[in-house]
Amino acid sequence: MGSFHLSQRQNPRFYRSKGSAVAVKREVLEVPKIPRATLKEAQAALLEYLHWTRSIPFMDAENMSKNSPHFLRNLLEKVNIVKDVRSSMARFLRYHPINEFEPFFESLGLKPWEYTPLLPRNLMFLSDDSLFFENYRVLCQFGIERNKIGRIYKKAIQVFQLESGALPLKLQAYQELGLSHSFMVKIIVCSPCVLIGDVDMKFIKVLEILRSMGFDHAWIQEHLADQDSYNWGLILRVLNIFSEMFCSNELVRLISQHPGLLFEGSGYATISLIGFLLKFGHPIDQISSMFLQFPKIQVQQFVSNLIKCFVFFHEIEMEVDEIAKLVCSYTVLLGSCRLKKTNSLLSNLNVGKKRLCKYIQENPQELSKWVIGLRIVPLPDSGEDIESKRLKMKFLLDLGYGENPNMMNKAFKVFRGRGGELQERFDSIVNAGLDKADVSEMVTVSPQILNQSKTVIQSKIDILVNELGYPLSSLVSFPSFLSYTTQRVRLRMAMYNWLKDHKKAEPDLALSTIVACSDKIFLNQYVNHHPSGPRVWQDLKAELSMDK
Asked: What positions belong to coiled-coil segments (predicted)?
């Protein structure tokens, strides 16, 4: 609301290197200080030029000369100082007319990276756009500070394109509705779109509803921010929703305690929150109760916290119905907790996903201790953890790690998973048809192969034997095959078979040679040997990505 993208309106030239507004922003983040004496002389020269040479009214010319430091700095860099700054600059301006819109917009409170996309195309003098300057003068005479008019231009450029005499009539129409002068000044700065088209009846309706609740214009003015824009239709929608959810006394108390429910993002975060909770099956009466318990926190932050909690639950693989129960039963708690990242919590709590899910379901209030800024205390070992460690120790002893304590400690860190799970994964490889001694040797060489589920291991063995046609015994010499993704294996083998069919690869390459090398080596040593190799490689990659 009130944001316009005018990429076609570019500055034709004038004291700026070519580049995007982002580049300009980077260049002027910090303006080097100009010596005070130099600054005063430069400002005086610019004032004389704007007022006496260009006939810009004195007040506006003075404002432009005193409140455009970025423009002045760039201009001084172009001037060859001979005797003094003032005369040298006056001589330069005599032969090098400036784009007056640049210091003008900067004096209205806009930074160069803000006004660069808004500069009128093919215009350089303010007098070239008399309609723009007339509407600017109307806003000044109405009492709006010059350094805030830039925000109005940025939010609603159409206000400056109104026909001659139209803007005063619009201002008068609002005042005739009983809106005070100071209130309208605040509204125009925050929400200049009320000046576009006819009187904004949604805006007027919002004022009427709030006034009927006892909220006067001064209260509204207090809770509006100059830097924000407001969609009064959206605010009206929130008020209508709330009027169906609460009795009048509850609604008055809610809005007085949490005005951000209406004004933050024009109530968009509030509507998003209601929609989010409805999707989880949250009854309306419970949503109403949640709002009456709403914490002293910004609505947008509350919604962000709630969504991050939902993402956290999803990442620890909590069941959907359990997530719904937590969201519905502990909405205020979740919205108040700014949780740390999932990996950080798992590591600091020293717990697995399965146990963490169960722990949260049984102790949801513990979430408030896992927020950013607090030290995380690891969860105590449970009976299941002790049994898991016992089984893991037994599994590692059976593999022969008991002889060396240091190797045992390293193995505990390398092998991820509960003791019973590790044994189950090991057995799945043995049951595929390999000798137990061979599998023990495979795991010693490539312990990471057991850091994946039994299902994943079985699927990779199936691909090796039934899809690629390799004997199961290939795993004994190349156990790390089970560590690579199925997509990588299929892509490499498909490309190798294509090269082999086109006589560009040896027919008996080892499986490890094809799969284990990096993409860069595989491309250089094999794919690029055929002119069509890179294209086929990309086609196969795209095909496998689609299948995935």
From this structure: none
Q: Note whether 191 and 228 are within 8 A (CB).
A: no
User: Residues 462, 498: one domain?
Assistant: no
Element (H, E) at 492: helix 486-501
Could you say which of 177, 197, 217 is where a domain stops? 197
DSSP state of 49: I
Q: How many helices (H) and strands (E) does the chain have?
A: 33, 0
349 and 414 inside one domain: no
CB 269 within 8 A of CB 235: no
CA-CA distances (angstroms) from residue 114 to 104, 106, 160, 196?
13, 9, 17, 22
164 and 105, same domain (yes or no): yes
Q: Looking at the structure, tell me whether residues 54 and 186 fall in a common domain.
A: yes
- DSSP state string for 507-545: TT--HHHHHHS-HHHHHHHTGGGSTTHHHHHHHHHHHHH
Residue 183 near residue 190, CB atoms below 8 Å: no
Mean pLDDT of 186-215: 94
User: Does position 398 have pLDDT exceeding 80, yes or no?
Assistant: no
User: Are 206 and 235 a contacting pair, CB within 8 Å?
Assistant: yes
- Dihedral angle over CA of 330, 335, 341, 344, nearest 10: -50
Lowest mean pLDDT of 15-29, 30-44, 222-236, 446-460, name the range.
Answer: 15-29
Do 436 and 499 lie in one domain? The reply is no
- pLDDT recorded at residue 137: 95
Expressed as residue numbers, the domain containing 76 is 36-197
* Sequence-distant (≥ 6) Cβ neighbours of residue 481 within 8 angstroms: 460, 464, 474, 475, 489, 511, 512, 515
Higher pLDDT: 393 or 259? It is 259
Q: Round the average pLDDT of the chain to a whole number and report it.
A: 87
DSSP state of 403: G
Looking at the domain assignment, is residue 515 inside a domain?
Answer: yes
Structure confidence at residue 13 as a pLDDT band (50, 70, 90): very low
In a domain, 151, yes or no: yes
Same domain, 335 and 390: no
Reading the block at residue 422, the tokens are 């590790």
Query: Do residues 427 and 469 make contact, with C-beta atoms less than 8 angstroms apart?
Result: no
Please state the domain count of the chain: 4
Integer Cα distance of 78 and 11 in angstroms: 18
CA atoms within 13 A on the CB side of 322: 16
For 119-141, the pLDDT digits (tens) are: 998 899 999 999 999 999 999 99
